[in-house]
Amino acid sequence: MPLQICILETDVLRPELIDQFDSYGRMFERLFAQQPIPAQFKVYNVLEGNYPPDTERYDAYLVTGSKADSFGPDEWIQTLKTYLQDRFKRGDKLLGVCFGHQLLALALGGHTERAVKGWGVGIHRYDLPNKAQWMSPDLEDLTLLISHQDQVTRLPDNATLLASSEFCPIASYCIGDQVLCFQGHPEFVHDYSKALLNARQEHIGEAVYTKAMDSLSQEHQGQTVAEWMMRFVAQGRSGLEQAS
Questions:
Q1: With contact defined as beta carbons under 8 Å apart, do 172 and 163 qualify?
Q2: For the whole model, what pTM was predicted?
Q3: Catalytic, out of 101, 124, 148, 185
Q4: Is 185 a catalytic residue?
Q5: Catalytic member of 98, 168, 174, 181
């Protein structure tokens, strides 16, 4: 039976990009559909106040990226934070990417703030200080497309650091077999990153923009991270975690 994944969508595309690219929820559906472990998805845009009914049950809940600050006072952010704390207490598996990575850290006792080193954009490389069985295929280090100006600066209690760099010391973490988060965007593709960089060029500054655009000549390992996430969710489900 396929994994059942609830995608909690926390943003909508910039107006000028809507006609060219998929929604964030659809980006994840497309990415996970290419993985060896089968899964089905339901997307709820929590920015618009949409949540799954209590009668629905999922193998994992994934929180997407967002232009919003995870530490912002917006009502929808506080509602989502409380919702995630409740799901964690129930023992549900939680996945977070970028904003989701940061909000889950906050919700579970860590700390997130504006990064002192400024915007992180383009393709970034991370060391992998700790490995887990579900991190298959194995990598020596990790490259991902990124777009963020906030960072997790303190891990929640009992969290294990999985990816790190000088620019972003806490780039991925897990909490046991229940929570898995990444600062980078496995769901992004080069064309979308280029369009986003062009839209933000004036805001992020010419030097940062040029370096980021140059970095897009490289490949990134979003497909591998997506497989890791599916294997993390599939742990304990007979046959699925061994899919290839």
A1: yes
A2: 0.94
A3: 185
A4: yes
A5: 98
Selected catalytic residue, list 101, 187, 220, 227: 187
Positive/negative CA dihedral, 14, 229, 56, 33 = positive
The span from the CA of 49 to the CA of 97, in Å, is 19
CB atoms within 10 A of CB 223: 14
* Residue-by-residue pLDDT tens, the chain, 244 positions: 899 999 999 998 888 888 888 899 999 999 999 999 999 999 999 999 999 999 999 999 999 999 999 999 999 999 999 999 999 999 999 999 999 999 999 999 999 999 999 999 999 999 999 999 999 999 999 999 999 999 999 999 999 999 999 999 999 999 999 999 999 999 999 999 999 999 889 989 999 999 999 999 999 999 999 999 999 999 876 555 445 4
Dihedral sign for Cα atoms in the order 146, 135, 231, 71: negative
Q: At what angle do helices 75-89 and 99-107 cross, to 10 degrees?
A: 60
